[in-house]
Specification:
With about 100 residues, the chain is of the alpha+beta class. Helix content is about 30%, strand content about 25%. It is built from 2 helices and 4 strands. The chain has helices at about 25-40, 60-75; strands at about 5-10, 50-60, 75-80, 90-95. Strands 1-2-4-3 form a 4-stranded mixed β-sheet, covered by helices on one side. α1 links the parallel β1 and β2. α1 runs parallel beside α2 (about 60-75). It starts with a strand and ends in a 7-residue tail after the last strand.
Length: about 100
């Protein structure tokens, strides 16, 4: 690739407790992935500068459960570090077929 694009999101926005569901985490994760998909389809992530890397910070186990199938649906593989309940972590999404060395 002569050039490529990367995107980074800090995805969490509140405490990890029952009240956190009041800030609509599923809907917010869906909106992030839709934004990435729209960018790819509109041309800003295709052609000479494909979107090859999405970095996500402040992930929780619940958010990972929402994000993984969403990224799979748009053709990205989603990898995260092991994150225990009550912890925050990071993850990356890359197009299917792009290798991840771990």
């Amino acid at each position: 690739f002569p050039s490529f694009q990367i995107v980074s999101y800090n995805v969490w926005f509140g405490p990890q407790d029952a009240e956190a569901n009041g800030v609509f985490p599923r809907e917010r994760m869906t909106a992030i992935v839709e934004c990435i998909q729209n960018a790819c389809m509109s041309g800003s992530g295709s052609g000479d500068s494909p979107l090859l890397f999405v970095g996500l910070q402040e992930l929780t186990p619940q958010l990972i459960n929402y994000l993984k199938p969403l990224f799979n649906q748009i053709g990205y593989q989603f990898h995260t570090q092991d994150i225990s309940p009550g912890q925050y972590g990071v993850g990356v999404a890359v197009p299917a077929g792009v290798g991840i060395v771990g």
